[in-house]
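User: Show me an example of a complex going from sequences to structure tokens.

Assistant: Sure. Here are the input components:
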Amino acid sequence: MNITTLVFILLSVMSVGSAIMMISSKSPVHSVLWLIVVFFAISGHYILLNAQFLAIVNIIVYAGAIMVLFLFVVMLMNLNAETEPIKNYRLQLVGIISGGALLLVIVSAVMKIDTEQLVEMKVGDAGLIKVLGMNLFKNYILPFEISSVLFLSAMIGAVVIGKKDDEVVNKPEN
Amino acid sequence: MMLLSIDLGLVIEKLVLIVVVISASLVIAMYTTFAERKVAAILQDRRGPNRAGPFGLLQPLADGLKLFFKEEIIPAFSSKFLFIMGPALAMLTAMMTSAVIPWGDKVELFGRHISLQITDVNVGVLYVFGVVSLGVYGIMIGSWASNNKFSLLGGLRAASQIISYELAMGISMIALLMVTGTLSLKEMVVQQQVGHWNIINQPLGFLIFLVCAFAECNRTPFDLPEAENELIGGYHTEYSSMKLGFYLFAEYINMFISSVIMATLFFGGYDMPFVNESLLSPNVAALIGVAALMAKVSCFIFLFMWVRWTIPRFRYDQLMHLGWRILIPLALFNMLLTGGVILYFHK
């Protein structure tokens, strides 16, 4: 057992454990905090795969921005276990079926894993910033541009939804 | 075992470096609190602290002792674990950035070449951004765990302020990265040693970065999260004793670290102007480098204080207006301009 395997096992335990804690904790704020721990563990996995850029971007975007907004909303609405809406059985059934289907897919994928080599070592440089940039802007320029148009339209949509009614906008400011 | 195949000297070297950097930043932060009171006194035509020790130099120690001896109060109905984690996280994220900063050039000691940088990761600038974006968690968690409306308001203000100003900061950084073409802080300093400082290429970018750094550090005129005349004490209303001290201390460490980052990115880092370091012996050159960096940092810290005691606090809508309607378009314009200039001269 070398140090990479050891780190891999530690990170895996951390990510799976905190994911379970995220689902099972009663308070939404605690759930959000556990989810942040999951993102950190996944970033650790990226670093093991020699993808430092992905790891850091994962931290900046997910842990640093999206989860801050999640936490913001959860704190603002002051959600508690008591104010949680009552879940009906039909929704629970739907959850069990879809979760079970996902479990089936994951288990069938796990069955095929080569147990001889649990941790992949020195898997190349696909996640390094130079290689990633060259790939994105040379080989995959069209999908990249299409997705940026998608982002732009999503941004405009958010602005339109967030805009107040006309009367409020037309009021003189200050 | 591969565990034992790591060079032991390297481990010791890095450990010593970490201890030195962390204790140095703590001591500097301690004396920055003293400097802040002295600068405030000078600007307000007072004497400032002058009783503890010669020229009041022992004042930070007295402050620290006072904080340790204060009664520690943990409010009822708050989450105790998160209440303690808040200030600890604030301190941790404040210290973490120092890992990628090049404090000086190589030193020769005991026949080893020791780089005065804890680690030179190839995504150094992004690492700094990652840690800065995590900095808000200490404030948010602490404010929520306090179970107090004023604290919560302070925490929410901190979250929206830091997220808003991070955008403009990031875009102004992109323009700088386009000029330097590297994400490693060490390489940026080496480039500036050979060529000229980045401030000459990116004056507008630096200005945007400076304003955003003030906002990220929660310094006046952007200290709305703790606006004491509206929110009592903001996010640390319920904190007492050394946990309050941690929050206050984290602010000063943030100020120190962001001064170092600004000096490194735009003002040549440990580069001493008009001196050719390669002609000197490496140890002397490294010493001069560290001294030059510290001199630049002191100027920035003085600027932080000067602004604090000069410009009054912004209103919340003014803060958001400045961030979203002025700084972000300005940063976008700066990025476009930089891209255009690079394209024009390199074709």
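The lines above are the inputs; the final block is the predicted structure for all two components together. Chain A has one domain: 3-170.
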